[in-house]
Design a protein that fits this description.
By secondary structure, this protein is an alpha/beta fold. It has 2 domains: 135 residues, Periplasmic binding protein-like II (D-Maltodextrin-Binding Protein, domain 2, 3-Layer(aba) Sandwich), CATH 3.40.190.10; 104 residues, D-Maltodextrin-Binding Protein, domain 2 (3-Layer(aba) Sandwich), CATH 3.40.190.10. 40% of the residues lie in helices and 21% in strands. The strands form 2 sheets. It has a 5-stranded mixed β-sheet with strand order 2-1-3-10-4, sandwiched between helices. A 5-stranded mixed β-sheet has the order 7-6-8-5-9.
Length: 252
């Protein structure tokens, strides 16, 4: 009886260790909050490897990595933060682009967003949400677009800054703001039940939102093989099809 219990305990411990070894900690930019769930499920089905996403603004996640956060892969909303991690010795290889994002203006109100550049100056728009441009690339793109149009200074008092694009999305969908600048992927969020009105921001108004990824040195000590599989999966035709479905641009 004791031998059987000992055997069962050993099997349980081995199973637990296997699960831990198979779990990847991936730092994920907030604009990917919806699509990462679909990617993770598809990857797990194909490989049996479980991905644990940690969502945040790209800048905050990069700082956490520099301060010792045990992440295996970093999916940023830009190329700057992951490339800096490589230069600083926290990543195995240089950052590569896995997808490019699209900036939109979005609202729960059926207002004339086609003319948002004019509308944003009127009393019909009380508050405008943007992500913190210092740490959130979509916020940086929004401020660039506003500056190009000569609107940045004119609407300063209307701006509501979110810590990440996820917080901006909350401001938009709950009606805290009249409109907000966000990622097109919000429109495909499976949990989104509020009707949204939106228009794209002209790409020529902001620098391309090239989103980069790196395998971090933490993975080298823990889950390198699994990390490399997920890294390659994100460049596969299966992952690209999912990215496209969520409004991202990928190289075919």
């Amino acid at each position: 009886m004791l031998k059987n219990k000992a055997l069962l305990l050993s099997i349980a411990l081995l199973s637990s260790q296997f699960c831990i070894a198979q779990s990847l900690k991936v730092a994920v930019a907030a604009n990917l909050q919806s699509v990462i769930k679909v990617l993770d499920a598809d990857f797990a089905q194909k490989t049996g490897i479980v991905v644990e996403p940690i969502i945040g603004s790209s800048g905050n996640l990069a700082n956490q990595i520099k301060n010792g956060a045990p992440f295996d892969i970093f999916l940023s909303a830009d190329m700057g933060f992951p490339q800096d991690l490589y230069t600083s010795g926290f990543a195995i290889d240089k950052a590569i682009v896995y997808a490019s994002g699209s900036l939109i203006v979005c609202s729960t109100q059926n207002i004339n967003l086609k003319n948002w550049q004019t509308l944003i100056l009127t009393n019909n728009v009380a508050k405008v949400a943007v992500a913190n441009p210092a740490i959130a690339p979509y916020g940086k793109a929004a401020i660039e677009a506003l500056a190009q149009l000569g609107l940045a200074d004119k609407i300063k008092t209307k701006l509501v800054t979110g810590e990440s694009i996820a917080q901006v999305n909350t401001y938009i969908t709950t009606g805290v703001v009249t409109m907000g600048f966000t990622s097109q992927s919000l429109l495909m969020d499976a949990g989104q039940t509020v009707k949204l009105y939106w228009v794209p921001v002209e790409p020529k108004l902001y620098a391309p939102i090239e989103q980069g990824m790196v395998i971090l040195k933490h993975a080298k000590e823990n889950n390198l093989q699994q990390a490399e599989k997920f890294y390659q999966y994100l460049l596969s035709s299966s992952a690209k099809a999912i990215f496209i479905q969520y409004g991202y641009i990928v190289k075919q």
